[in-house]
Amino acid sequence: RTSRLLALRISQADSYCKMKCAAIALALQGATGLVAPRLTVKSSALNAATLEVAPATSEALQTAANEARGLAMDSIAAAKSGHLGLPLGAAEMGAVLFGQSMTFNPDDPQWVNRDRFVLSAGHGSMFLYSWLHLAGYDIPKDEVANFRQHHSATPGHPEFPNSEHTTPGIEATTGPLGAGISNCAGLAAASKMSAAMFNTPEHTIFDNHIFCMVGDGCLQEGVSAEASCFAAHEKLDNLIVLYDANDVTLDKMAEFTQSEDVGARYEAYGWDVITLTDGHDLKAIYEAIEEAKANDNGKPTMIIAKTEIGRGIDEVAGTNAAHGEAGVAYVDEARKNLGLPADKWHVSDDTYKFFADRKAAQKSQYDAWQATYKAWQAANPEQAKILQDGIDGKTPSEAELLKAIPKGSGEAEATRISGSAIINDIAAAMPLYISGSADLHGSNKNYIKGAGDFGADFGKSYKGRNVYYGIREHAMGCIMNGFAYYGLFRPSGATFLVFADYMRAAVRIAALAELPVSYIWTHDSIGVGEDGPTHQPVETVSGLRAFPNLDVFRPADYEETAGAYVGAAVRTNGPTALILSRQNLDQTGTTSREDTLKGGYVAVKESGDLKCIIIATGSELQHAVAAAKQIGGGVRVVSMPCMERFDRQSDAYKAEVLPDSCRKRVAMEAGVSTMWYKYVGLDGKVIGVDRFGFSAPGDIVMAELGMTADNCAKEVKAYM
After folding, report:
1. If residue 12 lies in a helix (H) or strand (E), which one and from where to where?
2. Type and span of the H or E element at 437
3. How many other C-beta atoms can be found within 10 angstroms of the C-beta atom of residue 324?
């Protein structure tokens, strides 16, 4: 069969292809100075020309592609778990990306100007592990073989380096489909922002590209459409997406659930679209990628590569059965047909040498960049310090930031209004702190004054630190994660709290990946009032507190808002939610920005013997303080702006704030009551809102549902 195909391809190589032999040969050697024009002849003719003019390069890449297929087969078969389809179907794209087109240094996987590659279709993770191993990253073959095992460096889906996994070369935690391509919009935006902030006419520090591989599932998820529109609108032409268009989803062939022309859809968004009818054609893949890299026309690029899922396992190839593990039963025969020897996890010496030579060539480019970087540092010492702090993840200390925020006016105000001043103090002290909103800057009050707006046209620039996401909350969450994955910026973004549910998938990944992202969610309770129950969150805060590794602050006034912003700004191992009010709140005079960072503290000390503790948070602290005055005597008021931070304090401190000797405990919050029982106990009482609200002025809704000082005092007295 192979000889017949080769003969056919050679016979089809027309004179036009032969005239392009020199250009093709240079392209296959990775030349960037000469990019062959797009050819319209059939891919079979191009294959023939490729074999004719550059056998060494094409054969090395094809051998590597087949050996990568073998690694995927062997690892998934050994694990009895995994997804064979993509690693086998997209192998040629991996060969070109890692063997020719991308810029990186495996010995310095955190190099700031590296190209980034994100496997949005994260279920095909063996694709990524195989190519990172071949490319020379510190992923030994035994880790490749240890796929999906406990404590391995090769988990089931790619995980951004964190306290659980430190696998080099993983640029984003992926698996939830559509998230990776959306993260890449953030990575591409961060790259544009870096170039605008730090490049000078004399020195180019940032000129990298963001590569992403997606499948049909990623493009069916709505978030990918949101983020793709954002990327086109802001002219992120450094983003290149390779679409593994194999016409298959997990359950069925793709035609069962989709019929749109994806290419036309992306052209309508404002993308360049290149379609490869043979997504296994090494030369065509290389040519398309180089064309995309060369285009500085304000358009991101989608390369639609028509591939055969599960290629190499004839029994399932091209069908939805190839997506997962169904091909495992046939891998031994498939390996033979690919020309692989009997020993598993085979990589030839020639392939290792090819990538060693590639690594050496990349090192020369890396060394040249380092020389430019040192010259830039010498010429721009202030900018160099800012950049180095970003690379190192260095922020001002808590004490420095607390000092940078002046005292408040003492007048009643909404915590979103408090935040509007405080975020500007934070931004002044942290030049790489950025903000953004899903079309609600005017309501969220999170605009960084004088910092400009990010993007293209309409007075925006890539230096701007305020990002306008449009009404795209899910994409905003993913794009913020992309900014964080890039490694320099401290992103924050805002919308109404009730719309946080649109972002939950992105918040979960931020918590899992330990990303230093801040969410500013305003209009935090039934106090929203007239907009009614559709916009009055009652369950949302508790739902957010359920996430591991998400700090949730609900501050009570200006001082606590200052502490909350500082806590979010200095946190390096996970995201933080800032839950802020629409309505004005009293400044009780009992709060502390420093103690806010402990999560919970004594706001009002009891006089005399301790008889009861009232625990409150956010807008309800003012009512708890007033109620304690009404009750008098032995009532302590504890402010609990952040449960997660309080829970991380020492047992001694927690016992000091909530002594075991006092079992009479009442908690108050304008939300569902469930979470508070861990502090008050089953014998305690929670004054909460275990129902949806209604449309009326906010103070009326609050009063009708028991969120007043008088009702708090009444309930506590009855309980005592």
Report:
1. helix 2-12
2. strand 433-437
3. 18
> What residues contact 105, with CB distance under 8 A and at least 6 apart?
111, 114, 359, 362, 363, 366
Kindly give, in sequence order, each residue whose CB lies less than 8 Å from that of residue 307, ignoring residues fewer than 6 positions away.
89, 90, 93, 244, 245, 246, 279, 280
Question: Which residues touch 265 (CB under 8 Å, ≥6 apart)?
Answer: none
Q: Which residues contact 332 (CB under 8 A, 6 or more apart)?
A: none
pLDDT at 55: 57
Residue numbers annotated as active site: 473
Tokens of 414: 């909404």
Q: How many helices (H) and strands (E) does the chain have?
A: 31, 16
* Amino acid letter, 415: T
CA–CA separation, 156 and 320 (whole Å):
20
CA distance 440 to 428: 22
pLDDT tens-place string over residues 309-333:
999 999 999 999 999 989 999 999 9
Contact 649, 674 (CB under 8 A): no
Annotate 555-577 with three-state secondary structure: CCCHHHHHHHHHHHHHCCCCCEE
- Residue type for position 616: A
Q: What contacts 386, CB < 8 A, 6 or more positions away?
A: 431, 432
Q: How many CB atoms lie within 10 A of CB 78?
A: 17
- How many whole angstroms separate alpha carbon 508 and alpha carbon 517? 12
Distance CA 185, CA 235 (A): 10
Q: What are phi and psi of 564, to 5 degrees?
A: -65, -45
Q: What is the pTM of this model?
A: 0.92
Q: And the tokens for 104? A: 């990186």
pLDDT mean over 274-300: 97
Going by C-alpha positions, the residue among 19, 17, 9, 65 that lies closest to residue 285 is: 65
Contact 517, 573 (CB under 8 A): no
Strand 635-639 relative to strand 210-214, pairing? unpaired
| Alpha-carbon separation of residue 103 from 114, 208, 415, 483, 704 (angstroms) | 6, 8, 46, 20, 62
The model's pLDDT over 5-49, given as tens digits with 9 standing for 90+, comes to 333 333 333 333 332 333 333 333 433 322 232 322 223 333 333
Give the separation between CA 367 and CA 272, rounded to whole angstroms: 33
Q: Would you say the C-alpha torsion 213, 217, 223, 227 has a positive or negative sign?
A: positive
What confidence tier does 473 reach under pLDDT thresholds 50, 70, 90?
very high
**Whole-angstrom distance, CA of residue 77 vs CA of residue 363:** 35
Q: How far is CA 299 from the centre of its chain?
A: 22
Q: What angle do CA 552, 554, 555 make, to 5 degrees?
A: 130
The contacts of residue 293 (CB under 8 Å, 6+ apart) are 101, 209, 240
Bridge-partner residues for 585, per DSSP?
A: 413
Secondary structure (DSSP) of 237-252: TTEEEEEEE-SB-SSS
